[in-house]
């Protein structure tokens, strides 16, 4: 009896294991709606785009044929793609630091006790982010107009064409001004939220040591903001490489300045909807996504190392 009961007891799953398995299935039930939505809205489009990038339309025979990585090789040798990529890279290098510095100054000013009506300024600075990008581009496009906007009024006042925001030399800077106006408040809110969670004991200790306002910012606030700055930088990098709305709207004003491949996203969009080149458009989008992910990862890695 003893020898027979022992194997049966070992074969039966313990109550603890049964409870754990039940809890695991309950967890999957709660996570299932997110997993389904994530798969349908994120993984499925990426998989479909990768599938498209491996094929090419047949011009004379119709249909598509499998070409492997030939589309990727073509993109890597496409001068239009690299011209648009270098343009947004130049835009990123100049615009993102200016925007983040302005957002940081605004957050520090609002967080300080010396600024009166801090809540009012917080709302005013954040308000442009609530304006849709299309509306913002239309509004600034009217302001930039050489013949009908504020720029035209200034040129009329000066008696000559001095202010030309829509010219070839100033177009990228004009778009950068629009993007900065839109997203300074968003980044300011990220920095301000990080400032509000700094322990009060640090400020009390700094006050006891006789640290002034500038010393407190350098020694306490800026180190505490390092993680928020890295996050805002990564978001700004991704947003810069996805630049589309502003140049696409302003293209109607200056089609000779902003071409169909002014940014990589515009290039992919016009290839798909203008040229019906869906396979090559998907390839451009995937290559751009990989480059963006690599650059964002490098920035995150360097920011993390500095924080260690």
Protein architecture, described:
The protein is an all-alpha fold. Helix content is 76%, strand content 2%. The chain is built from 14 helices and two strands. It has helices spanning 2-11, 15-53, 70-76, 79-111, 118-130, 133-144, 150-158, 171-196, 200-208, 213-224, 226-241, 245-250, 264-274, 278-307; strands at 55-57, 64-66. Strands 1-2 form a two-stranded antiparallel ribbon. The chain is flat and about 80 Å long. The chain starts with a helix and ends with a helix. The relative contact order is 0.11. The model has no long low-confidence stretch (mean pLDDT 86).
Task: Please give the structural blueprint.
Layout: H1 2-11, H2 15-53, E1 55-57, E2 64-66, H3 70-76, H4 79-111, H5 118-130, H6 133-144, H7 150-158, H8 171-196, H9 200-208, H10 213-224, H11 226-241, H12 245-250, H13 264-274, H14 278-307
Antiparallel strand pairs: 1-2
Helix pairs in contact: 2-14, 3-14, 4-5, 4-8, 4-11, 5-8, 6-8, 11-14, 13-14
């Amino acid at each position: 009896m003893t020898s027979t009961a022992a194997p049966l007891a070992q074969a039966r799953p313990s109550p603890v294991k049964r409870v754990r398995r039940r809890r695991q299935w309950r967890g999957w039930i709660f996570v299932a709606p997110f997993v389904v939505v994530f798969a349908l809205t994120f993984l499925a489009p990426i998989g479909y785009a990768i599938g498209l990038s491996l094929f090419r339309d047949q011009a004379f025979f119709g249909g598509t044929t499998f070409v492997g990585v030939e589309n990727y090789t073509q993109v890597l040798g496409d001068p239009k793609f690299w011209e648009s990529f270098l343009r947004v890279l130049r835009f990123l290098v100049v615009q993102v630091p200016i925007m983040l510095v302005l957002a940081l100054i605004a957050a520090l000013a609002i967080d300080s006790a010396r600024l009166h009506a801090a809540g009012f300024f917080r709302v005013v600075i954040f308000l442009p982010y609530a304006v849709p990008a299309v509306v913002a581009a239309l509004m600034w496009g009217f302001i930039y107009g050489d013949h009908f906007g504020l720029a035209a009024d200034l040129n009329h006042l000066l008696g000559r064409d001095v202010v030309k925001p829509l010219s070839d030399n100033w177009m990228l800077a004009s778009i950068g001004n629009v993007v900065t106006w839109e997203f300074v408040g968003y980044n300011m809110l990220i920095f301000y939220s990080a400032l509000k969670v700094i322990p009060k004991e640090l400020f009390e200790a700094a006050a006891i040591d006789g640290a002034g306002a500038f010393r407190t910012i350098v020694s306490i606030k800026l180190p505490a903001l390092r993680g928020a700055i890295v996050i805002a930088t990564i978001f700004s990098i991704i947003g810069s490489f996805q630049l589309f709305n502003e140049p696409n709207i302003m293209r109607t004003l200056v089609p000779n300045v902003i071409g169909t491949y002014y940014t990589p996203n515009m290039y992919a969009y016009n290839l798909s909807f203008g040229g019906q080149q869906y396979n090559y458009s998907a390839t451009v989008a995937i290559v751009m996504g990989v480059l963006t992910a690599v650059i964002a990862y490098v920035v995150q890695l360097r920011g993390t190392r500095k924080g260690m």
